[in-house]
Q: What sequence folds into this?
């Protein structure tokens, strides 16, 4: 059987065609075919990306042994939509800035291709969330998230008024910019920017982080993986809201809308090349000042270089 890797490139990076062609050519030279969904191939001009087969979006990852993403966290989250629900793990090669979800950097491209060919990687399952949006007795939408579910106000000039429940019990009611419900994987993304804690990815938990809540008690909460969380937009509130999952899939929320969130039975499979502890990644990606202190014998932090 032919070995296949699905390539998911950043669609707008100027040099992405050259990078995708380089990866496809290196893999083909070692007997591994590459495929790409039609929308990506169209953006990259498929005739110029080397030995890559164009496939339909639906089921693109099914016959592949790996989904290889060439881009930053946004592109990786798009690749997650293609790999979730299959046995195909996802590997991110960072072409962006932080790239917290990426496993390797662009400088390691040649070595990474060799390790893909040798199947020299492990697979780690990450928690995802199931999300149901309802209004009254009817279900409006069902979706999912790898990083976070963000319930946000739709208009800048109005607060979003919500009631939050945990395991069927009311926790609090807030006027706020929004509420974030995140996985440990997503604890370093939007939830982190909103003041939530960093949670190691091997911890099984769900985070609830109020975003700019106008209240005396509006602290982040960490609950167990079997807890069920709900956010209800107050029925007589003037402002409407919008639900975003991983910043990619959205649902408009009218007053009275209810969002139920729980752990999904479908994990996200991530390919890992490194066995370094999560602490190393945390420091590398976020704490540039620590690197500056360590590298300066005079004891003054040095500015990071591009």
A:
């Amino acid at each position: 059987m032919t070995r296949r890797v699905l390539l998911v490139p950043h669609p707008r990076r100027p040099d992405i065609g050259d990078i995708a062609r380089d990866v496809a050519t290196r893999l083909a030279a070692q007997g591994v075919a590459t495929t790409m969904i039609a929308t990506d191939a169209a953006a990259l001009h498929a005739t110029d990306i080397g030995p890559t087969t164009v496939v339909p979006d639906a089921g693109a990852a099914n016959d592949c042994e790996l989904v290889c993403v060439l881009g930053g966290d946004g592109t990786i989250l798009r690749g997650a939509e293609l790999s979730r629900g299959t046995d195909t793990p996802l590997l991110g090669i960072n072409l962006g800035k932080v790239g917290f979800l990426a496993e390797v950097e662009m400088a390691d491209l040649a070595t990474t291709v060799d390790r893909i060919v040798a199947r020299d990687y492990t697979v780690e399952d990450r928690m995802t969330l199931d999300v149901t949006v309802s209004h009254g007795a009817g279900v409006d939408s069902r979706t999912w998230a790898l990083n976070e579910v963000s319930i946000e106000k739709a208009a800048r000039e109005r607060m979003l008024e919500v009631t939050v429940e945990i395991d069927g019990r009311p926790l609090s009611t807030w006027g706020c910019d929004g509420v974030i419900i995140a996985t440990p994987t997503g604890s370093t993304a939007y939830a982190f920017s909103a003041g939530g804690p960093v949670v190691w990815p091997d911890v099984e938990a769900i985070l609830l982080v109020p975003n700019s809540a106008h209240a005396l008690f509006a602290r982040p909460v960490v609950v167990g993986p079997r807890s069920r969380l709900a956010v209800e937009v107050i029925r007589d509130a003037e402002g409407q809201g919008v639900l975003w999952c991983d910043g990619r899939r959205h649902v408009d929320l009218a007053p009275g809308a209810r969002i139920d969130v729980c752990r999904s039975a479908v994990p996200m499979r991530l390919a890992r090349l490194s066995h370094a502890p999560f602490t190393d990644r945390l420091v590398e990606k976020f704490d540039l000042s620590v690197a500056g202190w360590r590298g300066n014998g005079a004891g003054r932090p040095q500015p990071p270089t591009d």
